[in-house]
Specification:
The chain has helices spanning 32-35, 43-65, 84-101, 110-116, 162-172, 179-187, 212-223, 239-265, 280-289, 309-322; strands at 3-7, 12-18, 23-30, 74-80, 105-109, 130-135, 140-147, 150-156, 269-273, 296-297, 343-345. It is α/β, with parallel strands linked by helices and 347 residues long. The protein folds into two domains: 3-115 and 303-345, 2-Layer Sandwich (Nucleotidyltransferase, domain 5); 127-298, ATPase, nucleotide binding domain (Nucleotidyltransferase, domain 5), CATH 3.30.420.40. Strand 6 and strand 7 (140-147) form a beta hairpin. Helix 6 packs across helix 8 (239-265).
Length: 347
């Protein structure tokens, strides 16, 4: 079944073609250069850029796959969570194509797709039960996966997502957006033990995440409590050490929480997904501290950041199980209640 995937949840306009076994094309038009001046994504600008370029990106995906619109048999679209204006661009486009081409459409959860990106590579033989760790700009969550269709939420972030925290700390250090790669570059030259940033944990909720306090600790270290944001008390020569110490504390928190879950639930593997998972430092830490116990899976780099290949593949798989979405489905910016379609709260 030839599946067109559409992704517009934030600032990447993306389309992909999946044939049920292989990704035939995966086109991503990034808007980073348009948002850098704001230090983050400007929602209305993101939506307008999707409006201007989405049909062009879909045409490019079809051309790369050597197919025409008439050969599309299923449309999968990211419908939640994300920026509501951006999501609506993709959802309305998908509905229009579904109606005009007379093919079914299925709504896909963007965050769930990040984890599913590990299954795009059919050479991955992932043993269950598994832990699923989502680390992205908008979400941080830990799942217990009994199999590909039965998952339970062990924990979520109680404040900032880890990617959001990296962006905010990067801004404090006068680094450009997006912050994660820039902090990692700077941290290579720093000492991760030079500042005592404690890996954050949530009291009485061992599988929840919190990064707001760590972000505030960096702020006070740079400017002092009550200090002016244009008058740092730390010399710029120490920024590399702050970057290294912050990154180490943030990633150590992830490692510690995963280690605890591995011990308690006797899982056989760990799956990591989301934009932060492309960090080489994070991969090295998981390789050194988790992999000796269980195998750790990361998506291929091209499927790590927001992309439509993960939407197409997950949509194809979900369609086989539950069929199409009704054409009146809506976009939803939030996933506070249940962030995954096949996920329940763990009890």
């Amino acid at each position: 079944m030839i599946t067109l995937g559409i992704e517009t949840s934030c600032d990447e306009t993306a389309a992909s073609i999946y044939d049920g076994t292989h990704i035939l094309s995966n086109i991503v038009l990034s808007q980073i250069e348009h948002h850098k001046q704001f230090g983050g994504v400007l929602p209305e600008l993101a939506a307008r850029r999707h409006l201007d370029h989405l049909l062009e990106v879909i045409d490019r995906a079809l051309k790369q796959a050597g197919l025409s619109k008439k050969e599309i048999e299923l449309i999968a679209v990211a419908s939640s969570p994300g920026l509501i204006g951006a999501l609506l661009m993709g959802v309305n486009c998908a509905k229009g194509l579904s109606f005009s081409l007379n093919v079914p459409v299925i709504a896909v959860n963007h965050v769930e797709a990040h984890l599913f990106a590990n299954f795009i590579d059919i050479s991955n033989n992932i043993p269950f039960p598994a832990l699923g760790l989502i680390v992205s700009g908008g979400h941080t969550a830990l799942l217990l996966m009994k199999d590909i269709n039965e998952s339970y939420i062990l924990g979520n972030t109680v404040d900032d997502a880890i990617g959001e925290c990296f962006d905010k700390v990067a801004r404090m250090l006068d680094l450009p957006y997006p912050g994660g790669p820039e902090i990692e570059k700077l941290a290579r030259y720093g000492d991760p033990k030079s500042f005592s940033f404690t890996p954050p944990r949530v009291k009485n909720a061992p599988y929840n995440f919190s990064f707001s306090g760590l972000k505030t600790k960096v702020l006070y270290t740079l400017y002092g409590e009550g200090g002016k944001l244009d008058n740092p008390i730390i010399p710029q020569s120490s920024y590399k050490d702050i970057a290294a110490s912050f990154q180490y504390a943030a990633f150590t928190s992830l490692v510690q929480i995963c280690k605890k879950a591995i011990g308690e639930f006797n899982v056989k593997s760990l799956l990591v997904g989301g934009g932060v998972s492309c960090s080489n430092t994070l991969k090295e830490m998981f390789e050194q501290q988790i992999h000796p116990h269980i195998p750790v899976f990361f998506p291929k780099k091209e499927f790590t950041l927001d992309n439509a290949a993960m939407i197409a593949a997950l949509g194809f798989y979900r369609f086989k199980i539950k069929g199409p979405s009704p054409l009146d489905f809506s976009a939803s910016p939030s996933s506070k209640k249940t962030p995954f379609d096949f996920c329940k709260n763990f009890s």
